[in-house]
């Protein structure tokens, strides 16, 4: 019986240590260690990029949306000033065209990606997820394309 209680019992046989400085334990390669021969993961970083996009687009949207609400609904007489002439005046400037374009794209992509998450979380059947996301992506692409077309082809002299 060993009276030595100062060292761990691991690797000990009847009080004698199995390994020491002259007889070290064999080095066992970690099973998941990556080497140059390890195949590359087939999964990309899409979800991480989507997570980051939600945060960054959210920050930009705060500025764009609050600015939009102030200009459209608060300043300069509030909603009563809004009409064809007001819209035509604003879209005559590339600055407001880019503002509205950015707001359209970011809000649509942010909202669509948020809903994609909601669908993934709540729709339990694979088929339901497929159809809901198909509908979501169709509506998203349609709205982005139509909105972009309107911003760039708006004609103030239309009759
Ligand atoms: C105005 C500034 C906005 C900020 C700061 C913001 C921020 C965020 C953040 C950080 C998330 C991620 C939450 C999470 O992962 O748990 C999120 C989710 C979401 N956002 Fe926004 N967002 C904004 C505007 C919008 C707009 C304009 C829309 C709609 C077009 C929208 C629709 C959504 C949806 C549907 C989700 C998913 C909700 C969920 O996962 O439960 N957001 N938002």
Automatic annotation (TrEMBL):
Localization annotation: Membrane
Domain of life from the UniProt record: Bacteria
Transmembrane helix is among the record's keywords: yes
Keywords carried by this UniProt record: Heme, Iron, Membrane, Metal-binding, Transmembrane, Transmembrane helix
Transmembrane regions: 50-75, 95-115, 135-154
Protein's UniProt keywords contain Signal: no
Predominant place of localization: membrane
InterPro entries: SQR/QFR_C/D, SuccDH_FuR_B_TM-su
Protein name stated in the entry: Succinate dehydrogenase hydrophobic membrane anchor subunit
Annotated source species: Streptomyces antimicrobicus
């Amino acid at each position: 019986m060993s009276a030595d209680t100062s060292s761990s019992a691991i690797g000990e046989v009847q009080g004698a240590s199995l390994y020491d400085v002259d007889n070290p334990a064999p080095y066992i390669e970690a099973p998941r260690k990556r080497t140059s021969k390890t195949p590359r993961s087939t999964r990309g970083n899409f979800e991480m990029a989507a997570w980051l996009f939600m945060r960054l687009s959210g920050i930009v949207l705060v500025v764009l949306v609050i600015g939009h609400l102030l200009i459209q609904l608060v300043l300069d007489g509030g909603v009563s000033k809004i009409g064809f002439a007001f819209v035509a005046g604003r879209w005559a400037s590339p600055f407001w065209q880019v503002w509205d374009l950015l707001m359209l794209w970011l809000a649509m992509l942010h909202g669509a990606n948020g809903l994609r998450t909601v669908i993934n979380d709540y729709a339990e059947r694979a088929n339901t997820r497929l159809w809901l996301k198909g509908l979501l992506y169709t509506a998203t692409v349609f709205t982005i394309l139509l909105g972009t077309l309107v911003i760039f082809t708006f004609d103030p002299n239309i009759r």
